[in-house]
Design a protein that fits this description.
There is one protein chain. The protein is an alpha/beta fold. The protein has one domain: Maf protein, CATH 3.90.950.10. It has 8 helices and 7 strands. The radius of gyration is 17 Å and the shape is elongated.
Length: 197
């Protein structure tokens, strides 16, 4: 089983996201957090799927793998929200968060996460997509969420596991955990490939 085989590896999560840490721990893995510091920019003309794959790959390629043990295994991820072909990353201010949430209110949007896994012998990048539908929110509800939950560190200005998700999500089509920032089922498959190759 993967949980036994992967004990041969030293796992590093290239993210400071509390949600990703929680999800990776929930999968049963021991790991060390090793945040990367890269400028999250992407080439012009990329599709949203290409953007998240590029950003997760950028994070993992910034690591000098030669400085780590032979059995090091790295995981990096990036998440965006897409509505009207607009990529909604982390809001720059409360007003920006309100603008994003108003755009998502009463309709469906897509959450995409890119995931990269790397060892000395294996390197792969993939992405996962989930469709989320919100009911229509009042301005008062949106400002309540922003003022009490401070979502400026979240793509699309919301965390599905928070109040806005409890009261506002009508449907989810795809991986719920992808919306939290880490498509755990897809990651499990990628780790199997890395370990059993």
């Amino acid at each position: 089983m993967l949980l036994e085989e992967i004990k041969k590896y030293k796992i590093y999560l290239a993210s400071q996201s509390p949600r990703r840490k929680e999800l990776l721990a929930g999968m049963g893995f021991d790991f060390e957090v090793m945040p990367t510091h890269v400028k999250e920019v992407h080439p012009e003309g990329c599709t949203p799927a290409q953007v998240v794959e590029h950003l997760s790959r950028l994070k993992i390629q910034s690591i000098n793998i030669e400085q780590f043990p032979e059995n090091a295994l790295f995981i990096a991820s990036d998440t965006i929200v897409v509505a009207d072909d607009d990529i909604l990353e982390k809001p720059a201010s409360d007003e920006d968060a309100f603008r994003m949430l108003r755009q998502l209110s009463g309709r469906e949007h897509t959450v995409m996460s890119g995931v990269s896994v790397r060892t000395r012998r294996f390197c792969a990048t993939r992405h996962s997509e989930t469709q989320v539908r919100f009911r229509a929110f009042s301005d008062e509800e949106l400002w309540h969420y922003i003022r009490h939950y401070h979502p400026n560190d979240k793509a699309g200005a919301y965390g599905i596991q928070e109040w806005i998700g409890y009261v506002g999500v009508e449907s989810v089509n795809g991986s719920f955990y992808n919306v939290m920032g880490l498509p755990t089922c897809m990651l499990w498959t990628m780790l199997q490939e890395a370990v059993y190759q």
